C-alpha cells in the first residue's frame, strides 16, 4: 500500500499514461507509476470496483438528474464510470470532450457524438469543467501536471473535479498546486456504480471553495442524484470518503471472519445470512457481500486489492496523525493476506476464502 | 473475560444466589461467582444490556403473540427481561411461578397475580416449562444444579429453556447434564429488549431436540414474535448468537474508531453520521450507537463489559477451535481498554470516548 511520503515520491515518478490495446480493463489505470505493483494492482479494476463498493445503497427509484447544463466539459478517464458520467453531461446539454489512455474508448465516445481528445491537455482546452475519473492520487497528478496535462491548457477560473479516492492531505496538496495557477479545484469523490453514473444518479462527497462549487454546479447537477457539500476546502470530501472506506473494509473483513467461523462450527451459512441480516450484527457490507460466499461466486464486483489500497491509506493517515486504528489495521492484514494468497483481483468477499483455507474449512464452491 | 476452562472452574465455585435489597440493578445477576469481577461486572446490567444489543432491529409493528398456552411455567430471573416474559406467559394462560434472588421482585410478581417462589427448585416443581433468564453460563448452572436448583424438582419430560448467551460447548454440556436426568433442554438465546419481552414479541434463536421444541412451543408462542429453529441439538442457538455478537462487537469498535478518527480530522460528526448511514459503510450498530456519541450521552443502554464478556467468549471458542479471529481480537482489546479506563459499565459507545481520550480528541460532552 502507498505510504503517505512514498506516495508523493511515487507521484513524481509517475509516467504519463501509456496507450493500451486492452478494452477489457479499466483504462485510465494504465496511467500508472512503474514498479509499484501493490499501489497499482488495485487500480486495474477500480472503475468497476471502487464505485461498486457503494453501489445499490440508495433506493433504485432515485430520480435521475433533469438538469440542463451549458458550456464545455471534459471527462478524463472513459472507464465504466467516466463513460457514463460523460453521457450524463452530454444529455444535460454540455459539449463534452473525452480522453482516455485507451484509444478505443475515445473512438467509441467520438462515434457516439462526443469530442474525442488525444490528451488531457487537448480535452481540457476551453473547458469550463474538467471531470477526472481515475483511480488514485498518482493518476490524478499525472492528468493535472504530467506531460500533456490539464494544467497546460485549462482556462483561468475553470474548475477541475477530482473523483479519485485519496488521502485528504494529498487532495489538499493537488488542489493548492492547481489553484496557485488560477484554476479552481473541487474535491469530489463519487459513489454509486456504473449504472448510476450513466443515469446521472451518482452520490458525490464534495468539498471546495464556494467559487469551485458554483462553477461545478451545472456538471454536478448533471452527474449526481445526491450531492453532499462537506466543506469549503478540498480534503473534506476525501476525508469523508476515507471514513466510509475504513468502515466498509472492516465490515467486509468482520463478515468474512464471522461467516467462515460459522462454517467452521458446522452452521448452515445460508441460515446464518438469514439470521444476521435480521439482527443487530448486520452491516451493509455483510448483506451485500456475503451472498457471494453463500453462492461460492468470487467473480470480482469489487476487488480485494481495492481495500488493500484504501485501508492502507487509512493506516498512513492515522499513523501520520498519531491516531491508533487497531481494528482497521487488523482488517487490512486480512486483505493483505488474501491478496498475498493470490486472490487480490478476486471479489473482496474472498477474505472469507482466506479464513476458510488457512483453517481447512469448507465453503461453497471453494474446496478447502 | 471467562476462559473456557476457567469458566468451568468458575461454575464449580459458584455460590448460590444471595438476596439483595437493590431493585435498581438487574437482580439475578447477584447469583454470581465470588472474586471474578471481570466475569461478573457485565452481568450486573445484562438484562438490560445484552438484550438491548438487538433491540429495535425489527419493525415496531411486529404483532404480539396471540397464543394461549396452558399448563404451568416457571421463570427464573425476574429482571427487565424475565419479568416481561413471565407477564407474556401469564397473558397466554400459563400458571406462572417466578423466582429471583431479589425478594422484592418476587413480591411484586406475586402481588400482580403470579406465584412467588423461594428458590429455583420451588418454582420448577410441577412446571411443564422452566424459562431461565439469567446472564451467563455460571448463573445458568447455579440455577440448574446448585443448592435448591431446578434439577432437584423438575418433572421428568419437562423442558428447561436457557436464554443466556454462552459458549455453545458450555450449552451442550449443561444440556447433556440435564437431559441425562430425563428432562429436556432447549438452547434458546433471546433478543429484543424489555419492551418486546413484555409484549411477547421477542426473537428466539433456538436449537434442541424435537421433543424439547414440542414441549416448549406453547411457551415460545407466548414469548416470541420470531422463532428461529436452528438445529436439533443444544449449542446451535448459542452458536448463532455468538456469531451475531462477534459482528455486533466488531461493528461498535469500528464505528468508534471511525467516528473518533473523523472527529480528530475536524469533521462534523453529525454530518459523518448522516453520510455514513446513507452509505456502504453503514452497520446496524453504527446507526444505533453513534447517536450516543454525537449527543455525548453515555447512559448505558448496553454496557461495555457485555462485549468484554461476549468477545471474550468468541476468543475462547476460536482459540479452542484453532481458528484465528484477528479482527474480533482487535475489537476485544478496545472494549478491554475502555473497561480498564473505568467505563466498563457505561454505554458501549464509550469505546469512541477511549479513542478520543488517548488521542486528545474532543467529542461532544466528553472533554478530552
From TrEMBL, chains A, B:
Keyword Protein biosynthesis listed: no
EC number: 1.1.1.411
Annotated ranges, domain 3-hydroxyisobutyrate dehydrogenase-like NAD-binding: 235-355
GO molecular function: oxidoreductase activity
Matches recorded under InterPro entries: 3-OH-isobutyrate_DH-rel_CS (IPR002204), 6-PGluconate_DH-like_C_sf (IPR008927), 6PGD_dom2 (IPR013328), 6PGDH_NADP-bd (IPR006115), HIBADH-like_NADP-bd (IPR029154), LtnD (IPR050006), NAD(P)-bd_dom_sf (IPR036291)
Pfam families according to UniProt: NAD_binding_11, NAD_binding_2
UniProt feature, compositional bias: Basic residues: 1-12
Catalytic activity: L-threonate + NAD(+) = 2-dehydro-L-erythronate + NADH + H(+)
Annotated region described as Disordered, given as residue ranges: 1-47
Domain 6-phosphogluconate dehydrogenase NADP-binding: 74-229
Compositional bias (Low complexity): 20-30
Domain of life: Bacteria
UniProt keyword terms in alphabetical order: Carbohydrate metabolism, Oxidoreductase
NCBIfam families found in the cross-reference section: ThreonDh
Function text: Catalyzes oxidation of L-threonate to 2-oxo-tetronate. Can use either NAD(+) or NADP(+) as cosubstrate, with a preference for NAD(+).
Family per record: Belongs to the HIBADH-related family. L-threonate dehydrogenase subfamily.
Protein's UniProt name: L-threonate dehydrogenase
